[in-house]
Design a protein that fits this description.
By secondary structure, the chain is of the alpha/beta class. The protein has 15 helices and 13 strands. It folds into 2 domains: about 130 residues, ATPase, nucleotide binding domain (Nucleotidyltransferase, domain 5), CATH 3.30.420.40; about 210 residues, ATPase, nucleotide binding domain (Nucleotidyltransferase, domain 5). The mean pLDDT is about 95.
């Protein structure tokens, strides 16, 4: 999805309906790979099918035979009307897709059906429920986020999803201009967040150096960055030049040349530049979040595999002047399990589930040190 195939369909769609109208209907930020633009790319592909299923729902269909559209994932499509609980016929008509393709909505904790007998061990006669989780990975990750107080979360992986949990959508003109999104979470909460660049840049710069014969292990990163000199430069990590994989060193050099900034030399200098730029971008997003919600953020909880980037965690604490806490690196899996266990009555509610997560993980806190 990082290639350019959806840019053209995004442009054509926005010629038919302005993004301001799409945002007013759905509250979802404008990204070229949103489902609405991918479907608009070639609607004739859907003439022979009878049902549209997203990947998690397709797996649930294989397991149970039930065709459903899970709400947290559906909400990210730029087609879902939260208050009406359905896909927008108006938007489907504009992009040339028949509304009859879309099955009923299912919410996290509800049951698709029973596991097909063919998947049961021989002689096993009990019914096994196929339960919907928050099938969008960030929905499950946020459910597994065990923060306290007025915290912002960062679900950190290839992308960084920076936001807070709300009870109602925030779809102001300013939130649209800041490109914040209102995705649905467990219990119909709102994942009010912004999708921004994550560990993709670090992974790509490592891959690029590897192609040049320089292998950088996870253990190598911290000493290389700590020994690297400070570069008088900052990159916009969300610039389109960095979105596609490949040749990341050349792209960094090109960006720095265009913006007349100092160029790194060593692998450590490149990685330090990326981490510092990411921290500055996160700070900007946190400031926007505070302005939009009218709440002062007093801590940042980082979940997901990216929370193991200790240098970035410290840079972020220094930039934002607040503490940064690591939550579960496997928050998506834990949130998925929590939704199922609540549905089965094994956990009473989300508060208890998050408390269980907090007591079962090793957490680290980073305080500003400069």
């Amino acid at each position: 999805y990082r290639d350019s195939h959806s840019f053209e369909s995004q442009e054509k769609t926005l010629e038919k309906i302005p993004f301001s109208k799409i945002y007013a209907l759905t509250g979802i930020q404008n990204i070229h790979f949103n489902t609405i633009y991918q479907l608009a790319g070639d609607p004739t592909e859907f003439l022979e099918g009878d049902t549209f299923l997203m990947i998690p729902d397709l797996i649930a269909y294989f397991l149970s035979g039930a065709k459903r559209l899970e709400e947290t994932n559906a909400s990210t499509t730029s087609l879902y009307l939260r208050n009406e609980g359905k896909i927008s016929n108006e938007l489907l008509h504009i992009i040339g897709i028949n509304e009859s393709l879309f099955p009923p909505i299912i919410k996290p904790g509800e049951t698709y059906g029973l596991l097909k007998k063919e998947f049961l061990p021989e002689g096993f006669n009990k019914d096994i429920k196929v339960i919907a989780c928050g099938s969008h990975d960030t929905a499950s990750a946020v459910l597994g986020a065990n923060g306290e107080g007025d915290f912002a979360y960062i679900s950190s992986g290839t992308w960084s999803l920076i936001g807070t949990e709300l009870q109602e959508p925030l779809m102001s003109e300013q939130s649209r201009l800041y490109n914040f999104t209102n995705e649905i979470g467990y219990n119909h909460t709102i994942r009010f967040l912004k999708n921004t660049m994550g560990m993709f840049l670090i992974n790509e710069i490592r891959n690029d150096f590897k192609s040049k014969g320089i292998e950088i292990s996870n253990e190598d990163i911290a000493p290389l960055v700590n020994m690297a000199k400070d570069i008088d430069a900052t990159v916009d990590v969300n610039d389109p030049i960095f979105e596609k994989p490949g040749k990341m060193i050349a792209k960094m050099d090109e960006y720095l040349a265009m913006t007349k900034q100092e160029k790194p030399v060593t692998p450590g200098e490149y990685m330090k530049l990326i981490y510092r730029s990411m921290a500055k971008d996160y700070k900007k997003t946190i400031s926007q979040l505070e302005k939009l919600t009218n709440h002062k953020i007093d801590s940042i909880l980082i979940v997901g595999g990216g929370n193991q980037a200790e240098i970035l965690n410290q840079y972020l604490a220094n930039e934002c002047r607040i503490k940064v806490v690591t939550g579960a690196s496997e928050a998506t899996i834990l949130g998925n399990a929590m939704a199922q266990l609540i549905a089965l009555g094994e956990i009473p509610n989300v508060v208890e589930g998050r408390r269980d997560i907090a007591s079962s993980i090793l957490s680290k806190t980073y305080y500003p040190n400069c």
